[in-house]
Predict the 3D structure of the following.
Amino acid sequence: MSLRIGDIAPDFQAQTTEGDVSFHQWLGEKWGILFSHPADFTPVCTTELGTMAKYKPEFDKRNVKVVAISVDPIEKHNQWISDINETQHTEVNYPMIADPEREVAKLYDMIHPNASDSSTVRSVFVIGPDKKIKLTLSYPASTGRNFDELLRVVDSLQLTAQYSVATPANWKDGDDVIITLAVPDADVPARFPKGHTRVKPYLRTTPQPNK
Ligand code: BEZ
């Protein structure tokens, strides 16, 4: 069965390019992003892994650990990383899981048989410090992911975990946010001292509380 938001991210042991990991232990108290790649030595994946290496400092700032996975053995990953570093002008600075038996891919339902029965789609799992899945994305092999969007959703997830707010369409860090319906009108001024706008009884906005 596929994994859903709110489920515990399944734990697993795996060989990675930075040594063996026990996934939950490796995550520790941090947020995590697990993102899959259909296969090694493929063009779109090469650009994605290079892009993630360049974005990694931004994920570090947000207390997010990043790990990639591809269903090829570790030796192939290491050779591919040399190519990624060379062609994308970067250094891959996070681990890549080797999953030749597709154990992790199956555990996380990353193989969508009507797309391919041997390689994974481009899955993303954002995992909270409580080890629960906060967000899932699935892209086809032909479409590279948008890493600005991954940062944006992490910003939203971390903000909404801390305050009783939600983020509107196309929100980005620093924009106004929506006060959730769980907050009664009477409590709004004390809980959102920066002020608020009551557009409708169900749509109340406020400046981002942690800015
Ligand atoms: C790619 O990364 O370019 C790719 C991987 C698998 C199928 C198609 C494209």
